[in-house]
Amino acid sequence: DGGITQSPKYLFRKEGQNVTLSCEQNLNHDAMYWYRQDPGQGLRLIYYSQIVNDFQKGDIAEGYSVSREKKESFPLTVTSAQKNPTAFYLCASRAALGSNQPQHFGDGTRLSIL
Amino acid sequence: AQSVSQHNHHVILSEAASLELGCNYSYGGTVNLFWYVQYPGQHLQLLLKYFSGDPLVKGIKGFEAEFIKSKFSFNLRKPSVQWSDTAEYFCAVTDTDKLIFGTGTRLQVFP
C-alpha cells in the first residue's frame, strides 16, 4: 500500500542534542512538508520541499533543518537551537507542485525532552 | 498571508445531536479548502475538499461543508453525530503551495 512512513513513533532528546526524524513516502509525490502540532495551536509549517534538492522555510523554521536528496525522503533534524522541541511532528506529501490535490499525512513522531 | 480561524475550540455533544463547526479564512480569490480529521491515535485524514463548482460538498462519514464566498467561510456540518465522531477537526486553506491550518476543534460525543 502507498503511504507515508514516519519513524520513530516516539523520540527522546537530551539537552544540547540534535535528533533526526525520518519521513519516507512511496506515493511518488513531488512535494513534502513538515508540520509541528501543539495543543491548541493546530499545525504549523516548519519546512517544505517541492522538488528534490530544494526546500523552503515555513512559518517556524528556526532551530530545524531538512534535506531532500531523494524524492521519497524528507528527513527533519531538530537541532539544539530549538529551545522548545517537545511536540508532535507530522510529515505530509502532495502529488505535484501547484496542484490542488490534498496532502497525505504520516502517523507522526512524538518528540520529548529528557 | 492567508490565515484560518476556527472559533469553536472544544465542542461537546450527545449522540444524534447536529454538528456545525465554523471555519473562516482571511482573504478571497481562488481558494482550495479542506477539512481534515484526526481520530485519537490516528493520522490526519481528509474529510472533504472544495476546489470549485457546487459550494455544498459532501465528504466521508456523512459530513458536508458549505463554501460561502461572501462570508469567507467553509463550515463543516453533520446532521446526527455518533460517538465514533469524537476527534479533532482541522480546517485548512491553500496559500500558493502551502496549506494553512486552523487551530483545530476538539469534538467529544457522549453516548
Fold and architecture overview:
The complex is a heterodimer of chains A (114) and B (111). Chain A is mostly beta strands and 114 residues long. Chain A has strands at 4-7, 10-13, 19-25, 31-38, 42-51, 54-57, 64-66, 76-78, 87-94, 104-105, 109-113. Chain A starts with a strand and ends with a strand. The model of chain A has no long low-confidence stretch (mean pLDDT 91). With 111 residues, chain B is mainly β. The termini of chain B are far apart. The interface between A and B is medium-sized, with 23 and 22 residues.
Keywords, separated by commas or semicolons:
heterodimer, A: 114 residues, mainly beta, seven-stranded mixed beta sheet, 11 strands, 0% helix, globular, B: 111 residues, six-stranded mixed beta sheet, four-stranded antiparallel beta sheet, 51% strand
Quick one: how many beta strands of chain B?
12
Give the largest interface pair and sizes: A-B, 23 and 22 residues
Helical stretch count of chain A? 0
- The share of residues in helices of chain B is under 10%
Measured by DSSP, the beta-strand proportion of chain B falls in over 45%
Number of alpha- plus pi-helical segments of chain B: 0
In oligomeric terms, what are we looking at?
A: heterodimer
**Global Rg of chain A:** 13 Å
What best-fitting shape of chain A do the alpha-carbon axes yield?
Answer: globular
Percent of sequence in beta strands of chain A:
over 45%
